[in-house]
TrEMBL record:
Gene3D superfamilies the UniProt entry points to: Single-stranded right-handed beta-helix, Pectin lyase-like
Species annotation: Paenibacillus eucommiae
Name recorded for this polypeptide: Uncharacterized protein
Highest taxon, organism lineage: Bacteria
Basic and acidic residues composition-biased segments: 1-14, 21-30
Chain intervals for the UniProt region annotation (Disordered): 1-38
Length: 747
């Protein structure tokens, strides 16, 4: 006959605890003597024990049975109640009553699922990682199978539901977290539960190592012409999908993926060799928002991976990947040794392969490390508004696996859709990559560039402030590229090994809207040059101001320029340039700074350690490529540093070339509506202006966004202002007053 409740409670009273456990609980929980009226041969029943201990004693019991500390819940300070029960707001008395009412007790989840029980009965599972309180529920058959972590199928129908499950632990779904056993299935169930719920909180166990002990062999790619028949192994990345509101408490735990495998060559395309073999991406998010991740390590184990020498294309193996996601807050994340990127941001294909031109938006990363990865510390494909504070993007390509091009610390390289000629594939201006800031970040020892911020037609408003760029120990062609529209590099320290382009050839990716401000930086170089590459580009604006340059050329066998700046709208002002050379290292004259056809060179100071008969010099150019406006250029090393190789220099080594007179004009031209990609010219009269003079047109209010402004002397006494609509639709340029300054060229 089935037992009634009184019989069950009587059996529960007979469940006893040993004297050793009693002593531990008595010592750690309460000091008073436990009641003796319920002792059975030196043992004490569970009901009496729970009733006598109170909340503190229950916490100690939880530590013994569940393996978690009493006052600390998974690495952060919390109450005793939370340590035992979670966050559900219930009174201490109510929880004691629940514990006392848990008339059933089993060793593990398997035993729970085999347990016969009535509806609404509470059972306690003693299993260390998956244990807790469960209540029996009667549900329809389609819900009774359970999710493997919060709910489990019950014997005879219905299900067991975990109590106080306002957060999720991977252990509940089968993860072990010992760095040895495979946690792939348990983590997959955990993520699926969050996806179904649409969000939640995941608590990782302090210092656990969740090991995804498998790797992917991908299915056949249509570009593969070498393998008529091919199929993968079915292993896929685990994706968070359409989750809106998620917190992952890392508690200094680690996720690691299998790295001990060999990447075989399978086919070639576009000059690269491809392999179907790849490591898993640890955390993948598709169309998710309001996600916080903190205190977590993501280990790609790339040092254990080998490859055929013909495998040159990067795999899709990242630490963190976000696609069409918004409002991520990442703190104290360490993503390292991944075959591709530490963080891959933004892509136009979601987890289901659906194409939609949506960027990532509004991400924050603080105190994160993206180091020893194969391709980039971070690749920013499509993002609007992101900030990285005190993050480390270093040692890309330095793991035993090697690197994939470009091997940079950070690569801001928008996808081709942003400049597609097909209208349907073009990206709206509001969704183009923009407003990205790096504050106090480090870019050091990468095999490729420290950072790439190019493609001014597709990215803009990029800021690097108080950062360190160190290319020593690497051999890149360029230390970094800063040529996106409205790039600001301020207060940074740079150690060059390779050139530092502050603009870039438009046809090679520089774009037609390059605006770079390089200000208050300290630059150290033994083999490198700071340069503006394409001086013929009329859309290139580079301002180099208040920087300290130190070029140590004492170890160079082949001497050359330190600074090469060319461009009619570029300015070089208020800088200090020191060139260190050995005694007698130069014979004759060596041009070290070429400041040719720039708009302005002013208030710069030049020094050198050179001694002997040789001299070094600046070149400001001769007609027609002469810099028109030069003032207070100070040469502090006597005759060893000449003012201008092409002209004589004064006895005090201060070379000044100032236009004898400047011309001015004023007008209020109306430009009206301008077609997409089109231009409208209007003229202002300036008496005395002649073709070849420099003109600068300045509006009296801030120009409209999306337009470029260019002025030139189009005829005698005539200045033409050209407004170009850089947007994809017609737009009106509002009327305003214009002030024009003309600088005559002295031939």
């Amino acid at each position: 006959m089935p037992e009634n409740n009184d019989q069950k409670h009587a059996k529960e009273e007979e469940q006893t605890y040993s004297p050793e456990l009693q002593k531990k609980l008595q010592k750690d929980g309460q000091q008073e003597t436990l009641p003796t009226d319920s002792r059975i041969g030196g043992m004490i029943s569970r009901r009496t024990l729970i009733s006598s201990l109170g909340a503190a004693g229950l916490a100690i019991a939880a530590e013994s049975l569940l393996g978690k500390p009493a006052g600390i819940a998974y690495g952060h300070s919390t109450s005793v109640t939370k340590a035992v029960y979670g966050d559900e707001p219930q009174s201490e008395l109510g929880k004691l009553e629940l514990a006392s009412a848990a008339s059933l007790e089993v060793e593990d989840i398997d035993a729970l699922m085999a347990l016969a029980a009535d509806d609404c009965e509470v059972a306690f599972v003693c299993e260390r990682l998956r244990g807790g309180f469960f209540v029996k529920e009667s549900l329809s058959s389609d819900l009774a199978s359970g999710d493997g972590g919060i709910t489990f199928a019950a014997l005879g129908g219905g299900r067991w539901r975990r109590l106080y499950a306002d957060h999720v632990r991977p252990e509940w779904f089968g993860c072990i977290g010992d760095g040895v056993n495979d946690d792939y299935e348990g983590w997959d169930k955990t993520v699926k539960y969050i996806n179904t719920a649409g969000g939640g909180v995941i608590e990782l166990r302090k210092d656990a190592n969740y090991f995804l002990n498998r790797y992917a062999i991908e299915d056949k790619n249509p570009l593969d012409s070498l393998n008529p028949v091919w199929s993968g192994n079915g292993v896929k990345d685990i994706w968070f999908k359409n989750v809106h509101g998620l917190v992952i408490h890392g508690n200094h735990a680690k996720f690691s993926v299998k790295g001990s495998f060999h990447r075989r060559y399978h086919y070639s395309y576009g000059g690269y060799g491809y392999s179907y073999d790849r490591a898993l991406t640890v955390l993948s998010f598709s169309r998710c928002s309001h996600v916080t991740i903190h205190d977590l390590e993501l280990d790609g184990n790339s040092s254990l991976t080998t490859r055929d020498v013909t495998v040159t294309a990067e795999p899709g193996s990242n630490g963190l990947r976000t696609v069409m996601c918004e409002n991520f807050s990442i703190y104290n994340l360490n993503a390292h040794h991944h075959l591709m990127d530490g963080w891959f941001l933004g892509f136009f294909y979601d987890s289901e392969g659906v194409l939609e031109k949506l960027p990532d938006r509004n991400h924050v990363a603080i105190n994160c490390k993206f180091t020893f990865n194969g391709r980039q510390g971070a690749s920013i494909m499509q993002m609007v508004n992101g900030i990285f504070i005190n993050c480390d993007f270093s040692d890309t390509g330095k793991a035993a696996y090697g690197s994939h091009a470009p091997g940079a610390g950070v690569d801001i390289e928008p996808e081709w859709y942003q400049y597609a000629t097909i209208t349907e594939l073009q990206v709206p201006e509001k969704d183009q990559t923009q407003q990205i800031t790096f504050l106090r970040c480090r870019f050091e020892r990468n095999v490729g560039l420290s950072a790439i911020a190019a493609f001014s037609d597709r990215s803009r408003d990029i800021t690097f402030r108080d950062c360190v760029f160190d290319a020593r120990g690497s051999s890149p062609t360029y230390t970094a590229i800063f040529s996106a529209e409205n790039t600001l590099v301020e207060g940074c320290t740079l150690y060059l090994n390779g050139s530092l382009p502050l603009s870039y050839t438009p046809s090679a990716g520089g774009g037609a809207h390059q605006r770079t401000t390089f200000i208050h930086n300290k630059v150290h170089a033994k083999d490198g040059v700071v340069l503006s590459i394409d001086g013929s580009d009329p859309n290139q604006y580079v301002w180099i101001d208040h920087n300290d340059f130190e070029f140590d050329f004492t170890g160079r066998a082949l001497l050359g320029e330190a600074i090469w700046l060319s461009g009619a709208f570029n300015k070089f002002t208020n800088n200090k340039v020191h060139v260190k050379l050995n005694a007698g290292q130069v014979s004759g004259n060596l041009i070290v700074n070429r400041l040719i056809q720039t708009a302005l060179c002013e208030n710069n100071e030049y020094t050198t350690t050179l001694t002997g008969s040789g001299t070094i010099s600046n070149a400001y150019g001769d007609a027609p490529n002469r810099t028109p406006y030069i003032r207070n250029e100070r040469f502090m090393s006597g005759a060893r540093f000449q003012a201008d190789y092409f002209t004589s220099y004064t006895s005090n080594n201060i070379y000044t070339r100032i236009p004898e007179s400047m011309l001015y004009g004023f007008g209020v031209p109306s430009f009206g509506s301008i077609a997409a990609g089109g231009s409208v010219d209007k003229t202002i009269t300036v008496s005395g202006a002649k073709i070849g003079d420099i003109s600068v047109a300045t509006p009296n209010v801030i120009p409209d966004y999306g337009f470029s402004i260019y002025s030139f002397v189009s005829a005698a006494n005539t200045i033409t202002i050209r407004i170009t609509n850089c947007m994809s639709a017609a737009a009106s340029f509002s009327d305003r007053s214009w002030y024009v300054t003309v600088i005559p060229r002295n031939e």
